[in-house]
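Bumping with the actual sequence this time:
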Amino acid sequence: MTEKALRLGTRRSKLALAQSGQVADAVSQVTGRPVELVEITTYGDVSREHLAQIGGTGVFVAALREALLRGEVDFAVHSLKDLPTAQHEDLVVAAVPVREDPRDVVVARDARKLTDLPRGARIGTGAPRRMAQLNAYARTHGLEIETVPIRGNVDTRIGYVHSGELDAVVLAAAGLNRVGRIDEVTDFLSVDMVLPAPGQGALAIECRAANTAQDVELVAALAELDDPFTRVAVTAERSLLAALEAGCSAPVGALADLLADGQIVKEMRLRGVVGTTDGSTLVQLSTTGPVPETHEAALAFGRELATDMLAQGAAGLMGERAQ
């Protein structure tokens, strides 16, 4: 007799279905059970408002979590950067798989790089974080650009470039990789130029906290997909975000790199940035130290850098503060 299929809750977007499909295959391999996708519409998918207006934090997550708690799905896959920083008391992130490329990328007309765009180029992005850093870079490098707030899925955003409405759009490399459209990228933005969103490129596999024998078994099986280095990095990044009391639509960038000496990972460097969306003011700092060996140590790593950033005036640059 074949075992009952595990039900994976996912958003309906092409990107969500692509990344959930990849996780479903991996879960099927470690559990030996079939996995079926259960498509769930979230508030963030149906609302046409800009993310900053609807609060950003959790708008793509709440419906998936409700389905989990009601037992309609066994586990859910989220883009980690969409998850609120506070852990849900009845749920657990059982796995953070190996992270995709965390960088931001440009898709521009005429295969142009960011620095080759015409004067006054209109660049679309849904993220105040990207606006702040792109505008700051433009100011210091003599570029004239206009950042334009946009929403929509990958097709919609790239469509603005093809239609000529925008000169370029900035997207996450990870998303384009997962939907098979990375060859449309005209410029990969160095993390020295634009720091990604905390957790960008990483996925979170969430399930119910271990209350029953089945839950315990599932948590253990999903944990096989966890990458400890990715987890420690994103934990530090999200701790920085939480300590800044910023929602996921606030103009905060963060990236933790693991620094290796040959094959041995020795240290972790955490970089953080917050700025006004016009790019006139940025607070950008970094810290390097031994790789945190516990969850608490990773949290402390992020909190310490956030404290330094707040001391440099980061709080006044945030605009929307998380409620």
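The tokens above came from a reply further down the thread. The two ends are 50 Å apart (CA to CA).
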